[in-house]
Amino acid sequence: MELAGTESRSHLLIGIDDTDNLDSRGTGFRARELGAQLTELGLATLKSVTRHQLFVSPDIPYTSHNSAACLEFVADTGRIDDIRAYCRDYLERESAPGSDAGLCIASPEQVNGRVTAYAESAKQTVLTMDHCYDTARAEGIYVEGLTGTRQGVIGSLAAVGLHHGGNDGRFLWLRGLRELEPGVYSIEQLRRLVDIDDYRSLHGDLLADEDTRIGITEWAKPILRQGRSVLLVESEGKHYEDRGCRWCVVGKEVIKQY
User: Fold this and answer.
1) Which segments within 152-212 are labelled E, that is strand?
2) How far apart are CA 174 and CA 161, in angstroms?
3) Cβ distance 215 to 243 under 8 Å?
4) What are the angstrom distances between the C-alpha of 44 and each of 5, 9, 144?
5) The pLDDT of residue 4
6) 234 band by pLDDT with thresholds 50, 70 and 90
7) Phi and psi dihedrals of 213, rounded to 5?
8) CATH 3.30.70.2200 residue spans of the chain
């Protein structure tokens, strides 16, 4: 992957897939932990982690849901080799026995229409490792299988393509998201606490009034739409009005559709 050059800072996308087994922590946990470690080491600054649901079929080996994760960083371009080496070592060390971990690292500029088309097809059909490698090679994107059958490369490239496409998946990590406790907050308060771009109703209406109050639950998990983090809310009527707010985060059954 040709990212070397001056010590300028730019965005970087890292996809991982199939790092777990039925008894281990999931790929989402590994993505958050990897992001935290790269940030703590000063190799990169984590901006977000997204989860992307891929095609579910008996012809695809997966642990429970066949989802992959994409980490978005800001990093010095001169540290790419160090970042790649750390990701490889982390996944080889932490991936569960029997897993088929795959790793993808790309700059947003490398993720063109061919890659996003590949990623969309990963949600609809069974793909091969050869298709993955051919797509990545054509755009100079680094992909590598690290454990087991190395089948996880398929999902790792798909996660990068879906995240870059900006209209798939939900956020597993944003600044302040996992520290946000259930309660009632104004949008003004929320903007100080967590990096959520928009607050929208299920009908797509934007809640723009900073004084608007929202009931936050443990399922306050934004989705990725039009390249922005969007928290979906719904009006629950008098129940929440009694608590001083008209709106509440949508339920788990809605969020799990993304």
Assistant:
1) 170-173, 183-186, 198-201
2) 19
3) yes
4) 16, 9, 20
5) 42
6) very high
7) -105, 140
8) 9-170
Give every CB contact of residue 25 below 8 A, 6+ residues apart in sequence. none
Fold classification of 9-170 is Alpha-Beta Plaits (3.30.70)
26 — pLDDT class (breaks 50, 70, 90): confident
- Nearest in space to 143 (alpha carbons), one of 111, 172, 169, 186: 111
Phi first, then psi, for residue 103 (nearest 5°) are: -135, 135
Side chain identity, residue 96: A
d(CA 240, CA 250): 13
Query: HSE-up of 111 (CA within 13 Å, CB side)?
Result: 26
Tally the C-alpha atoms within 13 A of residue 184's C-alpha that lie toward its C-beta: 12
Residues 6+ apart with CB under 8 A from 69: 15, 16, 17, 27, 28, 30, 31, 49, 50, 51, 52, 159, 172
Please name the residue that has the structure tokens 């998201």: 177
What's the rounded mean pLDDT across residues 67-72? Answer: 96
Could you tell me the two tokens for 5?
């050059």
Q: d(Cα 222, Cα 196) in Å, to the nearest integer?
A: 7
3-state helix, strand and coil shares in percent for the chain, rounded to the nearest 5: 30, 25, 40
d(CA 97, CA 61): 14
Q: How far apart are CA 103 and CA 85, in angstroms?
A: 11
Q: Is the pTM of this model over 0.85?
A: yes
The single residue listed with the structure tokens 């907050």 is 185
